[in-house]
Write a structure and sequence with these properties.
Largest sheet: 7 strands, mixed
Helix content: 55-70%
Number of helices: 13
Number of strands: 7
Structural class: alpha+beta
Strand content: 5-15%
Shape: elongated
CATH architecture of the largest domain: Up-down Bundle
CATH topology of the largest domain: Butyryl-CoA Dehydrogenase, subunit A, domain 3
Number of domains: 2
Radius of gyration: 22 Å
CATH superfamily of the largest domain: PhyR, sigma-like (SL) domain
Strand order of the largest sheet: 2-1-6-5-4-3-7
CATH class of the largest domain: Mainly Alpha
């Protein structure tokens, strides 16, 4: 085995971890693969014998590549798609497919991917490296071009955004979460009886035009109508997860981690009294979204 073959073998040993790092930073498997491949090209141009810690060196290179990609994405996103690239956009060519990405999304959590996408590029890099992979701030600082203290502030600010600001006491928040999760479980299973047990008798469902199918009613009233309409959304419900929406328990619908809909839910006395389906990009951007702790 020659030196290049040995280097390629050592790189392949790192590929899975590098892909995991890049995916959390970018939220796109295709882009993550591009970042990892670029890291290999850069490694091939240096004297690997001078790299003491190959894993650490590659992680740093991948993080810098991802930071550049996030900055470029931020500058063009408004022109292309609005606040979030649509779920239907797929990477072309070979490599890992939708099944691979689905596994990564499940491992990370679609709600977290949605919230990460709302961080600034530097915040996202600092948060992922420190909170997901325990990288010391001394190593993060040169990646984001800040001092160690500034890198700590970036991660702290990101952490605060990820966790959000609940407006309910913990016990009340937990109770609302159980109600909303029961609603989601019934919706995923197409369980009409289960859905009928969750809404209040006079429950209301509202939806903006972007969240409705052609000809759909913007408002429905009564538990029966709300439950029947929700059953029809079973396919979307499998992508739905609880999240903190404007400080209370709500739902994000995020196929492959791409935000499609938000349900702003009102819970009173153990029942869903109303929910609003929001799909308009401008309205989605204005919502405060955060992750609920497991």
């Amino acid at each position: 085995m020659n030196g290049q073959d040995e280097l390629a073998g050592r790189f392949e040993e790192q590929r899975g971890r590098l892909r995991a790092v890049a995916y959390r930073m970018l939220g796109s498997l295709g882009e993550a693969e591009d970042a990892v491949q670029e890291a290999w090209l850069r490694l091939a141009r240096v004297d690997a014998a001078e790299v003491e810690n190959l894993g650490g060196w590659l992680r740093t290179v991948v993080a810098r590549i991802c930071l550049d990609m996030l900055r470029a994405r931020a500058s063009r996103r408004e022109e292309l798609f609005g606040p979030q690239a649509p779920a239907e956009v797929h990477a072309d060519g070979g490599g890992p497919g939708p099944e691979d990405e689905a596994l990564l999304v499940d491992a990370i959590g679609p709600a977290l991917l949605v919230v990460l996408d709302r961080l600034s590029p530097a915040e996202r890099i600092a948060f992922v490296l420190h909170d997901s992979f325990a990288v010391p701030f001394e190593e993060i600082a040169p990646v984001v071009g800040r001092s160690t203290a500034a890198a700590k502030k970036l991660a702290s600010r990101a952490r605060h955004k990820v966790r959000g600001n609940p407006v309910l006491a913990p016990a009340e928040l937990d109770g609302h979460r159980r109600v909303v999760e029961a609603f989601l479980v019934a919706a995923r299973g197409g369980d009409l009886d289960g859905l009928l047990a969750v809404p209040a008798p006079d429950a209301v469902r509202r939806a903006d035009a972007a969240a409705l199918p052609p000809g759909g009613a913007p408002e429905l009233r009564g538990a029966g109508s709300v439950a029947e309409r929700t059953v029809l959304l079973r396919a979307r419900a499998r992508f739905a997860r609880v999240a903190l929406v404007d400080g209370v328990v709500g739902v994000v619908v995020a196929p492959r981690g791409r935000l499609l809909l938000v349900l702003r839910v009102t819970v009173e006395d153990g029942s869903v009294t109303s929910y609003e389906a929001i799909g308009d990009p401008v309205r989605l951007r204005r919502l405060s979204l955060a992750v609920l702790d497991a």
